[in-house]
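User: My instructor asked us to take a sequence, write out its structure as tokens, and then describe one feature of it. I'm not sure where to start. Here is the sequence I was given:
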Amino acid sequence: QVQLVESGGGLVQAGGSLRLSCAASTRTFTNYAMAWFRQAPGKEREYVATIRTIGVSTSYADSVKGRFTISRDNAKNTVYLQMNNLKPDDTAVYYCAARLSGRNWDYWGQGTQVTVSS
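Assistant: Let's start with the prediction itself. The structure tokens for your sequence are:
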């Protein structure tokens, strides 16, 4: 079982920045691909970004490409999401997720709220 704990959310004005962190409780962190998802009120959860096990390969949703950066520190068992030029549409609960293989995400954090004011 892997526990994921997100932090770093908050209230920010449009155009501002936040960095989210997700700490994983596992000794085999490097075996897991990591991702960020988000869910806005009244909407389905949507994919934001993924980073592969070694951290070289990343991918992003079109809506955040060029503004958000996902990274990981395997020594700290932590994945980050640097969010720049935030927009009100980025307001959501942000979740990190982990998987060993396949297409399904096996573990989820409890989420952290990000609110962007206009």
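For the description part of your assignment, you could build on this observation: The CA atoms of residues 38 and 79 lie 15 Å apart. Try explaining in your own words what that tells you about the chain.
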